[in-house]
Each structure stands twice: as structure tokens, then as C-alpha cells.
């Protein structure tokens, strides 16, 4: 039976993956505050009966807040997997990319909530580039492991 040896440096990608999950959770807490502020209870996700009673401005603001969290949830599992897989080969680089992703998500959320969809662009670019870096790092490490490069 084979065993997997986990190097101590792999703790950094683990901490990055956990931190990304915590940041997503905290982004969701902002939606809870918006639900209370705009009186949009569950299960309304921004297009239901309660949200339909909002003014256009309030509806847009609530949906901007809600969308930042929903978008994060849509990406969460892929990003956490990528930071961990890349971390098997290059733990410090992977961790740095994970932290860069978190900065991108922070800018994305702040921009989207403050300025609407166009405000998310700088954070989107940073988060996407860091995610692509994680994927590239995992692929490169895998190809090295297979002795293709």
C-alpha cells in the first residue's frame, strides 16, 4: 500500500484554501445584511415576490450584493481544488496565487457593490489571472511528474 507524504510547506495551500472558504462565507454575511436592509427574506434570491416590491434602485443594489456572493459560490470548489492541486507541486507559489485570488475577490465584491457590474472588472481580472496561474501550476507540476517536461 502506498502512502502520501505531505510536506510541511503544504500547510500554506491548505490555509489558503480555508481562507478562501472563509472569505466566501463572509461575502455571504453581506447578503444577510442586505436582506434585512431591503426586507428581502429567504428564499427570494432577488427576483421573487419580495424583491419585486423594491424600487429600481433598491432592487439593483440588493442584486449587486447578492450576485457577488452567488458568483463566489459558483467558483469556490474549483478554486479551492486548484490551489490545493497546485500546492502539491509548488506550495508557496500556490499559496501566493490563493492570496492574490482573495485580493481579486475583495476588489470584485467592493467594486460590484459600490459601482455595479462595471465596478467588478479590476477584481475579476486579478481573480481570473490568479486562478489561471493555479491551473497552469498544477498542469506544469503534473507534466513534470509524468516526465513530459
Topology:
Blueprint: H1 11-38, H2 56-89, H3 91-115, H4 121-145
Helix pairs in contact: 1-2, 1-3, 2-3, 2-4, 3-4
Question: Could you please describe the fold and organization of this structure?
Answer:
- Keywords: Membrane, Transmembrane, Transmembrane helix.
- Its main location: membrane.
- It is a multi-pass membrane protein.
- One of its GO terms (molecular function) is glutathione peroxidase activity.
- It is found in: Membrane.
- The structure is a single chain.
- The chain has one domain: Four Helix Bundle (Hemerythrin (Met), subunit A), CATH 1.20.120.550.
- The chain has 149 residues and is mainly α.
- The model has no long low-confidence stretch (mean pLDDT 96).
- Helices cover 75% and strands 0% of the residues.
- Helix 1 runs parallel beside helix 3 and helix 2 runs parallel beside helix 4.
Amino acid at each position: 500500500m502506498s502512502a502520501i507524504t505531505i510536506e510541511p510547506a503544504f500547510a500554506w495551500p491548505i490555509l489558503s484554501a480555508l481562507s478562501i472558504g472563509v472569505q466566501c462565507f463572509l461575502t455571504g454575511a453581506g447578503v444577510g445584511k442586505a436582506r434585512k436592509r431591503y426586507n428581502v427574506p429567504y428564499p427570494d434570491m432577488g427576483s421573487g415576490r419580495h424583491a419585486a416590491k423594491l424600487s429600481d434602485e433598491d432592487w439593483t443594489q440588493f442584486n449587486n450584493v447578492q450576485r457577488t456572493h452567488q458568483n463566489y459560490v459558483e467558483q469556490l470548489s474549483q478554486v479551492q481544488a486548484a490551489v490545493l492541486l497546485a500546492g502539491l507541486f509548488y506550495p508557496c507559489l500556490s499559496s501566493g496565487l490563493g492570496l492574490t485570488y482573495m485580493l481579486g475577490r475583495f476588489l470584485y465584491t467592493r467594486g460590484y457593490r459600490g459601482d455595479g457590474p462595471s465596478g467588478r472588472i479590476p477584481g475579476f481580472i486579478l481573480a481570473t489571472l490568479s486562478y489561471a496561474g493555479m491551473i497552469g501550476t498544477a498542469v506544469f507540476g503534473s507534466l513534470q511528474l509524468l516526465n513530459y517536461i
